[in-house]
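lol so apparently i was supposed to do this last week
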Amino acid sequence: MSQKKAITVARGDGIGPEIMDATLRILEAAGARIEPEYIDIGEKVYLAGNSAGIDRPAWDSIRRTKLLFKAPITTPQGGGYKSLNVTIRKSLGLFANVRPVQAFNPYVETHYPDMDVVIVRENEEDLYAGIEHRQTNDVTQCLKLITRPGSEKVIRYAFEYARTYNRRKVTCMIKDNIMKVTDGLFHKVFDEIAAEYPDIEAHQQIIDIGTARVATAPERYDVIVTPNLYGDIISDVVAEVSGSVGMAGSANIGTEVSMFEAIHGSAPDIAGQNKANPSGLINAALQMLVHIGQPDVAEQIHNAWLRTIEDGMHTADIYRPGHSVHLVGTSEFADAIIDRLGQAPERLRRWSIDSDTDTRITIPGYTRHATTKTLVGADLFVDWVGDPMDANVIGTDLERLATEAGGALKLKMITNRGVKVYPDGFPETFLTDHWRCRFVNSATKPAGEQTDYKAVEHTDVTRLMDVLTAGGYEVIKTENLYLFDGERGFSLGQGE
Ligand code: NAD
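anyway here it is w/ nicotinamide-adenine-dinucleotide bound
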C-alpha cells in the first residue's frame, strides 16, 4: 500500500461544507490514500478583512501539497473583492481547466442522451488578464492577451488528454476571422501541435457556430480546446444541456500545482439544508484520484456512484417523479454510494480507464524561438473631439504635423473603433473621441499594392509624439508596429 498523499482541502462556503464532508466520507470508505490538510479560504477570510480571500498559511499549504481540493466559495457582492478562483488559477499557473460533461440518460433528464464532451479551457490569459482602461470620455478598453506559451501548453494538454483517455477528436474553437492576430495565433499553434498527433482527428470551428452546435448537437463533439472566455461560456452551455449543474467536476491543471472543484457555485439558496447534490465535487475528486495515481479508487467510486444514480436515489435537483425512486439528501446520497462500493452500473457506461494506463500528462517546458523584430511604425491613439467631428480635419492636421516632425513616419490611415475613416472615409461611419492614427515609414508602395514596410527608429516615434503633443493633441497610448521575421505583427484596419 503506497503512502498517503497530503492534499489541501478547502470546505468552502454555502453548500461547500456539506458536499465536501459527504465526498470525503466516500473517499475514506473507498480507501483513498489521502491525508487532508484543511485551510480556510473564501467568505470568512474576506469578511475578516483579507480582500484576497486567502491568507499566507493557506498559500503555504497549497504550495507544499501541490493539490487543492476545493468546495465552492461565495464571492461577496458589492465590494471590490477579486474572484479568488481567478487569483488561485493565475497565481499558481493552472493553465488548463478540464471539464468532462456527459449525459446520464435516462436517469438525469436531457435532450442529448449521447453527449460526452470534455472542454479544455485555457485558464490564465485572454481577456481574463483583467487589464482594462478607460481611455477617453467615450471609450474603454480590455486587453486580450493570447501568448504562444499559454496556447502551446493548453493545446498540447488537450491532445495528450485525448490520447490518454482514448478520445478520437479535438476541436479548436476560435474567432480568427475577426481576431486574426490573437485567435489567429491560437489557431496556428493548434495546427502545429495537431500535426504531432496524427492518431487524433483535429478540427477547428468558429466559436459562434461552435457554441450553437454545442447547445444543439453536443454529441458531435469529443474534446474541445478553446481560449479562456469562450471556454467559460461553452462549458456552462455544455453543463446546462447535460441536465444539471450539480453533476460535473473540473480539474485546473498546472505544471506544479493542480486544483479540483465542482463546476457549480456555493448555492446559498439551499445551504445548510442537506439538499445539495455532491456529484460535482465527487466527480472532481475522481479526476484528482486519477491525477495522483489512484485510478483504482476512482473506478470503484465512479461505478458505485453510477449505480446509485441508476437505482433512482436522487437529490432534489435531479429528482423526477416516475423516474426517481427515492428523494435523498446530501448525506443519504453519500451513504447510498458507500453502500454500493464494489458494485457496477447495469446500463450507464462504467469506468473505462484501464488501471494500467499511465494517466500522468506532462507538458514540456516552453522553448522560445527567437525572431528578428523590426520596428516599422506606430499606432498613436489620440483623444480628440472636433467641431465638427470630421476625420478629414484631424487627418490633414496630423499629416502636417508628421511632416513637421521630419522623421521617417508619415500618416497612413486613421481608424475610429477599428474602421478606416481617413483617408476616404464614409460620412455614415459613427465617430467617437478615440482615434487610432497609423504612422509608417513614408516609403510605401502606391495604393492598391501591399505596403512595403521599412524600418524606423524608436526616436522617430517619440519625436512624432512630442510634435503631436505640442500641436495640442493628447496621445493616450501608442502601439509600436513590428515585423517578426518579415511577417506583419499587427492587423490591418477595417477597410485598409
Ligand atoms: P450556483 O452554482 O451556486 O447556483 C445556481 C443554482 O444551481 C442555484 O439554484 C443552486 O441552488 C443550484 N445548485 C448549484 N449547485 C447545486 C448542487 N450541487 N446541488 C443542487 N443544486 C445546486 O451559482 P450562483 O447562485 O450564481 O452563485 C452563488 C455563489 O457561488 C456566488 O457567490 C458565486 O460567486 C459563487 N461561485 C463560486 C464558484 C466556485 O467557487 N468555483 C463558482 C461559481 C459561483
